[in-house]
Write a structure and sequence with these properties.
Order of helices and strands: HHHHHHHHHEEHEEEEHEEH
Radius of gyration: 26 Å
Number of strands: 8
Structural class: alpha+beta
Largest sheet: 6 strands, antiparallel
Distance between the termini: 50 Å
Strand order of the largest sheet: 6-5-4-3-7-8
């Protein structure tokens, strides 16, 4: 109980410190902002320079205040929780301290994954925390598709928000220091909130949920980001040419040359698209083919085959199968490439693509379609979603737009589709650790690959988590030796 009172005292003291400093900081922020024309020289007025410096200083202080407030809230939650559950709060604190210790171990520099003294008996936590610490190491390093790793994060997280917040996660990636502070304070705080919510609902105990969210998450978002960090780290350390396949045009042209069944593309130099009613030069658009130096891949729209169409409502888009394959050939050339997961993306009625879809899990061995889920709550970005209640995860056995039963059906010749992806991985990018293949089962062209994603998403498909974690662990150990 003495420990609980000490935590509560720290939380109150920290809160009083923040509120005591707020008026002075707000006062300092009442600055004049000078707008300078881009064609004019920057002002040399010393007062203007001082104002700019103070403004920057104020922004930094405001950011630290925000993180200080989160830290205060964490202390408060721990204190109040410990008043009733001293044993549980002791376990939570122990978990948090080991998490912080592991981050600091990597952030101090010259620290190796193989020699890390933290989480020696929990491989999943060891892998996950190492991947989080990698973010700051990769931050300003070149990225295989988007300038730097930081730029890639901002681009790929601009339409993703923590459910119920509405805030795009890209806003949290504006500096390496700020991201470190978010990991150090923000992630434990979010883990506390999630653990409290799930324990109140009776889904699991508070301590177990806190440890899972913080150290061993298996939700689709956490696995996707882990895949992204592994791909970025691998590309940086190996500089393997296979990562060029991420570019859609490179994949189509090189894949076609290697005999991989890719989606057909047109070779005509340029096309024109006109509005049927516009006049006077309006409503007309020209597209130059990438094959002739342009920016556009020009293709005829593909159609689902009869089997896929039988599972979908009318006006559904081309609906693909996502298969993820894994390779250790960059360090063990004789090792086989293996499939990890399979998901059928059943597009919604009226949608342009299957990015709006029900995600049905598929058995890799039998092709039997299992239950369907959605992850749309992660894509609710904007002020209208701030503070909104997060809907419970829905489970589907039939397509909600038509009522047609999907679960229990079997995808024909699933072994050939899996083999197609394994062969493509071997031919196009054998050393790349993970590939997410989008397979279309089409009416006219049979099974074709639309593209490959190297920072891939499992789309909530079933994954053998222990095997997957061992795979990533092996990758980290080998990459560290290069």
């Amino acid at each position: 109980m003495n420990f609980s009172r000490f935590l509560l005292f720290c939380a109150v003291l920290s809160g009083l410190t923040v509120t005591d400093q707020m008026p002075d900081l707000v006062g300092e922020a009442n600055l004049t902002i000078v707008v300078v024309d881009s064609n004019e020289a920057a002002p040399n007025d010393p007062d203007t320079v001082v104002v700019a410096a103070k403004f920057i200083e104020w922004l930094v202080i405001k950011s630290l205040l925000l993180l200080g407030t989160i830290a205060t809230a964490m202390l408060g939650v721990l204190a109040l929780f410990s008043l009733r559950y001293s044993q549980e709060v002791s376990q939570v604190l122990s978990t948090t301290l080991e998490f912080w210790g592991a981050l600091l171990y990597y952030w101090k520099g010259n620290s190796t994954y193989a020699d890390c003294p933290y989480f020696e008996n929990d491989l999943h936590a060891r892998v996950h925390v190492r991947s989080l610490a990698l973010v700051s190491e990769l931050w300003s390093k070149p990225h295989y598709r988007n300038g730097t790793f930081a730029e890639d994060m901002r681009k790929n997280l601009r339409n993703v928000a923590l459910p119920g917040t509405g805030i795009p996660l890209s806003l949290l990636c504006w500096s390496s220091l700020f991201f470190k502070l978010e990991l150090f304070f923000g992630l434990p705080f979010v883990s506390l909130v999630v653990a409290r919510s799930k324990s109140k609902a009776g889904n699991s105990t508070f301590v177990a949920t806190y440890k899972e969210v913080l150290l061993t998450p298996t939700d689709w978002f956490s696995l996707w980001r882990l895949n992204c960090r592994l791909a970025s780290y691998h590309a940086l350390r190996t500089e393997d040419a296979g990562f060029r396949s991420e570019d859609k045009w490179t994949f189509l042209t090189e894949g076609s040359a290697k005999g991989i069944p890719v989606s057909p593309f047109l070779k005509t130099p340029k096309i024109v698209v006109k509005d049927r009613n516009e006049e006077g030069g309006l409503g007309i658009h020209f597209y130059k083919n990438a094959m002739h130096g342009g920016d556009w891949i020009i293709q005829v729209a593909l159609e689902n085959n009869d089997f896929v169409s039988s599972l979908l409502p009318k006006e559904a888009p081309l609906s693909t199968i996502r298969i993820v394959t894994a390779s250790e050939k960059s360090f063990n050339p004789d090792s086989p490439i293996k499939p990890l997961s399979c998901v059928f993306r059943a597009g919604r009625a009226g949608a342009a693509t299957d990015h709006d879809a029900i995600l049905f899990d598929v058995n890799l061995s039998t092709g039997e379609i299992g239950r369907g889920t959605v992850n749309k709550k992660w894509y609710r970005v904007g002020l209208s979603h701030v503070g909104k209640s997060v809907p419970e995860d829905e489970v589907f056995t039939a397509h909600p737009d038509s009522g047609v039963a999907v679960s229990g059906r079997k995808i024909p010749n699933i072994e050939k589709i899996v083999s197609l992806c394994l062969d493509a991985h071997s031919l196009s990018c054998p050393n790349v650790p993970l590939c997410g293949w989008d397979v279309a089962m089409t009416q006219l062209h049979g099974n074709v690959l639309l593209e490959v994603n190297l920072s891939c998403n499992f789309f909530q498909g079933t994954v053998d988590i222990p095997s997957y974690i061992r795979f990533v662990d092996t990758q980290f150990k080998n990459l560290e030796k290069l």
